[in-house]
Amino acid sequence: MTPVYEAVKSVLTSHFNIPADAIRPEATLEDIGLDSLAVVELLCVLQDELGLRVPTGDDALKSLQVTLAQAAAAVEQAQPAPVPETLG
After folding, report:
1. Strand 52-53 relative to strand 79-80: parallel, antiparallel, unpaired?
2. For residues 82 and 53, is the Cβ–Cβ distance under 8 A?
3. How far apart are the C-alpha atoms of 4 and 66, rounded to whole Å?
4. For the residues of 19-74, what is the DSSP string, one character each?
5. Is the torsion defined by CA of 74, 56, 34, 60 positive or negative?
6. Integer Cα distance of 85 and 49 in angstroms
7. Helices 3-14, 68-76: crossing angle, 10 deg rounding
8. Among candidate residues 19, 20, 67, the one with its CA nearest the CA of residue 39
9. pLDDT value at position 18?
10. What Å distances lie between residue 44 and 8, 16, 54, CA to CA?
11. pLDDT by residue for the chain (88 residues), tens digit each?
């Protein structure tokens, strides 16, 4: 699997306490017990860990029927997060 998929898997096991054996590419977000609020939290954590701006408006991430492989593919399309300008 891709590095982004592995990052998703790591966050799901460490941050959401989802058993590693439940995390499979074909499992949907709903299958692993996430609700829409948890998906937003997952995207926020991934943004922080990967330094990306995850496309939260992406249709691929709006449905709980999205598979983990599809979600990881959508995250892979994310752009690097902008670096804040320093003041002064």
Report:
1. antiparallel
2. yes
3. 16
4. -GGG--TT-BTTTTT--HHHHHHHHHHHHHHHTEE--TT-GGGS-TT-BHHHHHHH
5. negative
6. 20
7. 120
8. 67
9. 96
10. 12, 13, 8
11. 788 899 999 999 999 999 999 999 999 999 999 998 998 899 889 888 888 877 666 566 678 898 999 888 888 887 676 666 665 5
Structure-block tokens of residue 77: 């399309």
Tell me which residue has tokens 């995850």: 54
List Cα–Cα distances, 74 to 8, 48, 56, 68, in angstroms.
Answer: 11, 16, 10, 10
CB 40 within 8 A of CB 56: yes
Alpha carbons within 13 angstroms on the beta-carbon side of residue 58 total: 20
